[in-house]
Amino acid sequence: MNRVDPSAAAMVMATRPATAGWRLVLSVFKLRIGTLIMLTAIAGLAIVPDGGATPWQSLVLALSVLVASASAGAFNQYVEADSDRLMARTRTRAFASGALQRGPGWLVLMAAMLAGAVGAAAWWVNLPAALFVLLGALTYAVVYTLGLKRRTPWNIVIGGAAGGFAALAGAAAANPQVGPLGLLLALVLLLWTPPHFWSLAIANEAQYAAAGVPMLPVVVGKARAARTVHRCTVVLVAVSLLPLAFGAGWAYGLGAVVGGLNFLRKTAALARAPHERARAMGAFFASMMQLSAIIAGVLIDAALR
After folding, report:
1. pLDDT for res 272
2. What are the residues whose beta carbons fall under 8 Å from the beta carbon of 135, sequence distance 6 or more?
3. How far is CA 149 from CA 6, 73, 77, 143, in A?
4. Residue 104's CB: how many other CB atoms inside 10 A?
5. What pLDDT does 20 receive?
6. Positions of the chain with pLDDT under 50
7. First-to-last CA distance in the chain?
8. Could you tell me the CATH superfamily of domain 23-304?
9. In the prediction, which pLDDT does 176 show?
10. In Å, how far are 111, 164, 167, 252, 259 from 300, measured between CA atoms?
C-alpha cells in the first residue's frame, strides 16, 4: 500500500526546482483551506456584538485554528496518499507522488501541531474555544477522513461540521456563552459544505469512481446529485438570512443575498445540465464567492460597530 509509482515521483521531482522544496512541504498542510477556515473563525468572533476578546486573544485564536486545520489537512494527505495517486486532481500531491516519504515522524509533527494549537487556545483564550478548535480538527481528520469518506456518500455532510466548529471557536473566543449569531453562522457553514464539495465531486466524478470513493455523484449519478446540490443550496440561502433576525448588520445581509442568489443561479444551471463540467465548476466557484461575501459582510459590520 505504501509503494510509490516511480514514474509519478520522477515526474514531480524533475519538474520541481530545488529552491521550491519548502513549498512542497507547505503544500502538505493544505494552507489554502486552512486560511479559509481561519477566516471563518475570525468571522465567528466578529459576528458577536460586544465580544470580550482582546486583540491578542483574537490573534491566538486565528493562529490556533490555522495550525489545527493544517495538522488535519496533513493527516488527510498522509492517510489518503494511495487513493490520491488514482486521481489526476491529486496524484501530484507530495505524499501521493512520493516526493515526500510517509513515516512516523510526520504523525508526531501533526499531533504536536494539534496539541500546541489547542493548548494555546485553552491558555490564552478560553476552554470552550479550545474545545471547538479540537473538535474541528478531529472531525476532519478522524470522523471524515478515517470514518466516513470511504463508507457513505453522505460523508461530507457530517465532515462539514469541521467548518462549523471553526465558527463556534471564534464565537466562543468572543463570548464563552455562544449566542444565536455564532450558532447560526456555524449552521450556515455546516449547510454550505455539501453543495460546495458535491459541485466539485460532480466535475470530477470519474476520478472519484476510479479511486473507489463513494461521493454522491458516483453513487446516485450526476443528474440526481446536481438536483440535490440545488435543493441544498436553497436551504442554505434561506438559513443564511436568519442571522438578520438576530442583529446581523446590513453588510452581512448584502453579502448573504448577493452571494446566495449567485450560488442559486449557478446550481440551477448545473441541475439543467449536470454532465457539463463547466457548470459544475461554476457552481463550485460560486460557493466560494458566497462564503467570501458572507465573511466580508461580517467583518465590515464589525468594523462599523
Report:
1. 98
2. 161, 165
3. 27, 14, 13, 8
4. 7
5. 55
6. 1-19
7. 55
8. UbiA prenyltransferase (1.10.357.140)
9. 95
10. 36, 21, 17, 8, 15
What are the boundaries of each domain within the chain? 23-304
Measured distance CA(15)–CA(25) in Å, rounded: 16
Taking a C-beta distance cutoff of 8 angstroms, is the pair 178, 47 a contact?
A: no
Contacts of 303 (CB under 8 A, 6+ apart): none
d(CA 132, CA 294): 21
Q: What is the pLDDT of residue 25?
A: 87
Residue-level length of the chain = 305
pTM to 2 decimals?
0.90
The CA-atom distances, in angstroms, between 294 and each of 257, 258, 299 are: 9, 9, 9
Cα pseudo-dihedral 99, 111, 159, 62, rounded to 10: -100
Residue ranges of alpha helices (H) inside 125-220 are 127-138, 155-159, 161-174, 180-203, 205-211, 216-220
- In this structure, which amino acid lies at residue 67? V
